[in-house]
Amino acid sequence: MKQHKKPFRLSNLPNSLYVLFVVFIAASLAVPKFLTPGNLSNLILQSSILLLLSFGMSLVLMTGCIDLSVGGILSMTGVVMATMLRMNVPAIWAIAIGLLTGVLFGTMNGLLITKLRLPSFITTFATMGIAQSIANVVSEKRTVYWDPKPSNSLIDTLGKDFIRIEFGQTAKEVLTISYLVLITAVVITVVMLLFNKTTLKSRVFAIGENEEIARLAGIKTHFWQIGIYAASGLLAAMASLLVLIRTNSLQPTTGEGLEFQAVVAAVLGGNTLKGGKGSLTGTILGALALYSVRSALSLAGIDTSVVMIVIGAVLILGMWLNETIQMYEERIVGMLRSILMGRNHGHNA
Amino acid sequence: MPKLLELQSIGKTFPGVVALDDVSIDLLVGEVHVLIGENGAGKSTLMKILSGAYQSDSGSLSIEGIEVLKNDPKKAEQLGIRMIYQELNLIPELSVMENIFLGHELKLKGQLFLNKRSMYEKAKEILGKLNIPIDPKIQVKHLTIAARQMVEIAKALSSKAKILVFDEPTSSLTSSEIKDLFAIITSLKATDVGMFYISHRLEELFMIGDRVTVLRDGKKIATKNIKDITIDELIEKIAGREITEIYPHKKQTAGEVLLDINGLTSEKFKNITMDLRSGEIVGLSGLVGAGRSEMARAVFGIDNYKSGSVTICGEKLVKKNPKIAGQKGLSYLPEDRKEQGLALPLNVRENIVIAGIDQLFPNHIINTQKETQVAASYVEELNIATPTTEKLTRFLSGGNQQKVVIAKWLLTKAKVFIFDEPTRGIDVAAKSGIYGLMDQLAKEGAAILMISSDLPEIIGMSDRVYVMSNGILAGEVRGADITQEKILELAFSHVKGELITDETA
Amino acid sequence: MDTMPRLHRILDIHTLKRGLYSSSIFIMLFLVFGVFTIYNRVAFDTNYLKAANISVIVNQASFLMVVGVAQAIALLTGDVNLSIGSVMAVTTVLFGRMLQQSSDIPLFIPIMLILFLGACIGFLNGILITKLKIPAFIASFATMYICRGFAWVFLGKTVIYRLDEGFRTISMGKVYTIGEFTITVPMLIALALILVVNFMLTRSTFGRKIYFVGSNVVAAQASGIPTDRVRITNQVISSFLAAFAGLLYVARLNACEPGMAIKTHFEAITVALLGGFVMTGGYGNVWGVVGGAIIMTAIQNGMNSIQLPSELQTLVMGLIIILTVFMNTFLLEKKMLVADKNIETKKAIISRGAQI
User: Is residue A2 domain-resident?
Assistant: First the structure.
């Protein structure tokens, strides 16, 4: 009997692996300061915030929708938490309420999209404005600070380093893993566990591929869609918590434009705007690739305007790479087969 | 045997079509009840009502004597009704086992995490029973159409089923696979499962069925025990009239070659050589996935091809340029009218003129009055049932939509027509209208290539039949050789029984 | 049927529906003007509806109409153009540089050059979308970054002030005043643009192809339409109009700066969607953009008039977008179905809609 096993394919690997690979090698060679423990710790810390956002975005994209409001939710929940800290609410409560705000806002997105049947792009675009507006109103467009008090010492603690390994004396030779990174790692692991070990993946892929098939299989499509938007809101609120801990203050405009970066990381990671497929591992690599570019260029002292150009180019390169690898793979596989078939033929004769 | 299911006086209407009219049918425990009828007779609609995908307009459904008041997919599943759909309902990015258990996954204690191990074991067991050598962990996107169809069957059997519906399960299976399937069906009968079985292959019905119900134009014609009926009686009941009446095409002498396809090769098909002559209707048969539509698309220039040539009326066509192909007199009427043939949000007028718009208005400015007149003249000529040319095409019935697609190409004065599944999902009356049109086109000197999976249609309409199998032109049959057996033999001739494709889907 | 095609066309519900669809924006317009008029009357005893104020609103809206049309054209084929704002920035920055470097060349040369540059960027977008098969959202997002980056590279943190006064008439010129209502040059430019584009979309064969591609790209291919060419041309027109809008904007601001129009791509999407265009393509009447632009300006103007804090304005805008899109996609669909004589159709559509 012929073996009907899963064939290995290059194109089955997340697309962002190649992008990250190319970017990483190029950066390591061109920028000497790039491949140092200090810079790598910094890189991971910086990408943590984006990682959480793009995880939520990936899940939404897999259902065939988009969530442009994540940046707005980040600002809004951040302002909510920071304001409460300022009002001396215990940190744990501030955080809980902040996260709850994110969930509620996400749920509202989901309700608008499923129950009123509005297109997700324009709806979340509008709610992005609403969330950002709430952030601005509450904060009166000023950065929110709070006084360090025993009630909010948690925030301070979370900002500290968890692991610190010194390879040398200078800052660039110190590898640090902060609690922030630890939180991110835990959240990411939990999401990936839920994605791979529960029905989440089948639900999300089925809804994204064809809502009608999902419905016929007895899946409550609206329930899941609303849930995914709520999760996206929650992850945005968590990202906001990271910002808050890291900067020990909060700017009300901190989330502006982040939704696009989240889309870029997710799309580089092989998630499509059409839904029905995607990879969370890809998203992690995509986010890392994006920040590798930023970090390398800023280390090399290149102006931010050029950074924009390079990121645009990397995005196009990534998308193009995906197409090309698929195309060449078919050709390679075809060539191999013709060689094998030719040999078989000779043998028969 | 006790009654398992009873559907009483079911009625259902769609825009412009009465799909079902007062149909009553029942199913006994351990029975295979065959549903038969032409495309559009209402079989699939009836089964979709049973599975809760559609709501009936009237009538009632009761299972084991208890009436089901409001049926929906979830409820149907709880009642133990399982469908094996004609169109494949699998999620390509998920694995075989994830698809099999979609909607009723096995979970570990605590009901949160999946019990992947037992899902794997159970999937393997089901696949083993069906004699399908596929690894349950492989993604469905890597499977061939035949393998997907078998996974569909496995999916239906994965949970406790009381009533199974097979909607043309054998259309892309090889004869040994069909034998395996029939063995399963026989063993299921012993476990008191009741089954509806829809198929076009009459000889199959006599092998597997207990009773047969014939549907025609949405009405029930008769229910008989298989033993009490002959094939000829059945055919007569299905058609309800002389066969020649439905298929008006009279064979005639073919004229000069209009379309010449020479050695056409791409990833999906290899070395296709065929010709079409003026006045001919040539059938192109083959299994789903044999590469027929892909070849047609390449000929018309939508997709690219590697080597070979397409010549129309002595002029060679350039690759991948549908515009030139259209101007030279080639036309393509795609498989799926709604998805590929029409712009449904646009109206009849806009759809009719689109292909010939550059010829109609060479200076690029649309003269609305002229446009409306032209469109109205085709509406009249083809008898398209629409009050005005301004009606949106999405509100037309299937037959009238198909006529709009035909009108589009009449306007360009096309000489060669490639019809891809021209009558799929069209009711019988409208069907004969389409056949009449095709015949008329051939009489006026056009050459027609008709791709169809409906064998009676191929046999009834074609002067010659090409058969493709697994991307290869398996052969050509003419005259008295045009029989179901011969065509099927060719259609399966290059099928290797492979379950995994090399293409990246 | 042949004898009275015209009458049928006028009476047919599906023709009416198209009119209705784009006119939902005008219903919103009445609502918005109504609310602000009453509020102004009651709270401040001022007349919101006075001609001078309307004139200001329409003048401001004219600028939005140009970018709105640029976006609407991209949306019609189911694509989107996120690079509109960046194209405006990069082209005008170059324009400013050219004026600065050589003040003696005739003005139309740099104008022509930068319009051509805009078209080239559109061509690049089109190639990325059709040939490299990158979704328009991602492709135009990448070019948005690239163009904005180049704008900063060219000009750094400097700003070019004081443009040619003659050039500024395209934005500041006044033509005629009736009572308190002033007809300005931008109004005439926007009107001319709308008329030209409307003619292109409704009366030219190219326009028909655009709608067909947007409605169903596969069917368009199968009808012999060179779909890639149509989509590329569309992107070229869209970015060309963006460059043109850039000129109007800098003439009004009297300055070229790389950070200009940072959110214009979003404004353009909002205007187009308010005007009845849809992200999936194939739908929309360019006159809807007029309504969309006026409603957006009227809301901003009105919110200023009632002294609503600027922070809250985004919130109100968000709510109005949701409301309008809801009206467009849902209420009018229902209204159309109720008016349709074919009851069966109605049932089918409603049940199908419920499934989707």
Answer: no
Looking at residue C351, its pLDDT comes to: 33
First to last CA, chain A: 24
Q: Does A331 touch chain C (CB under 8 A)?
A: no
Q: How far apart are CA C28 and CA C30, in angstroms?
A: 5
Cβ–Cβ below 8 Å for A330 and B137: no
**Residue B26: beta bridge partners?**
B6
Q: Which of B8-17, B244-253, B391-400 has the lowest mean pLDDT?
A: B244-253
Contact B229, B214 (CB under 8 A): no
Q: Which residues of chain C lie closer than 8 angstroms to B388, CB-CB?
A: 1, 5, 8-9, 12
Asked if A312 lies within 8 A of C145 by C-beta distance, the reply is yes
Q: Which residues in chain A touch residue C142, judged by CB atoms under 8 angstroms apart?
A: 312-313, 315-316
Provide ipTM, 2 decimals: 0.83
Q: Which residue of C has its CA nearest to B359?
A: C205
The whole-angstrom separation of Cα B257 and Cα B313 is 7
What residues in B contact C14, CB-CB < 8 Å? 347, 390-392, 395
pLDDT at position C17 over 50:
yes
Domain C-terminal end among B413, B446, B465: B413
In a domain, B294, yes or no: yes
- How much is the pLDDT for A1? 38
For every residue of A147-193, DSSP letters joined together read ---GGGHHHHHHTSEEEEEESSSSGGGEEEEEHHHHHHHHHHHHHHH
Spell out which residues of chain B touch residue C215, defining contact as CB-CB under 8 Å: 343-346
Cβ contacts of B365 on chain C, cutoff 8 Å: 203-205
B185 & B260 share domain: no
Residue A178 corresponds to which amino acid?
Answer: S
Q: Do B364 and C205 touch (CB under 8 A)?
A: yes
Predicted pLDDT of residue C303: 86
Q: How far is C15 from chain B (nearest CA, A)?
A: 7
Give per-10-residue mean pLDDT for chain A (349 aa). 51 72 86 86 90 96 95 96 92 95 97 90 92 93 87 81 79 82 94 94 94 86 96 96 90 90 90 88 92 89 87 88 71 65 45
Q: Which of B413, B436, B470 is a domain's end point?
A: B413
Does residue B37 share a domain with residue B22?
Answer: yes
Mean per-residue pLDDT for C327-341?
56
Per residue in C135-181, pLDDT (tens digit) is 999 999 999 999 999 999 988 878 888 777 888 888 888 888 888 88
pTM of the model: 0.86
Of all residues in chain B, the percent with pLDDT exceeding 90 is 33
Which of B341, B366, B377 is nearest residue C219 as measured by Cβ atoms? B341
C-alpha dihedral sign at B42, B47, B50, B53: negative
> Is A4 within a domain?
no
Label residue B504 by pLDDT band (50, 70, 90): very low
Of the candidates B499, B500, B504, which has its C-beta nearest A329's C-beta?
B504
CATH number of domain containing A186: 1.10.3470
Rounded mean pLDDT, C194-204: 95
CA pair distance B256, B279, nearest whole angstrom: 9
CB contact under 8 A, B504 and A11: yes
Sort strands B281-286 and B447-451 into parallel, antiparallel or unpaired: parallel
Q: In chain B, pLDDT over 70 holds for what percent of residues?
A: 93
Domain of residue B20: give its range.
3-242
Burial of residue C236 (number of CB atoms within 10 Å: 0-12, 13-18, 19+): buried
Contacting residues of C for B293, CB less than 8 Å apart:
none
On whether residue B504 sits in a domain, the answer given is no
Cβ distance of B366 and C211 shorter than 8 Å: no
Verify whether the Cβ–Cβ distance A309 to C145 is below 8 Å.
yes
Q: CA C124, C130, C136 angle in degrees (round to 5)?
A: 75
Number of domain units in chain A? 1
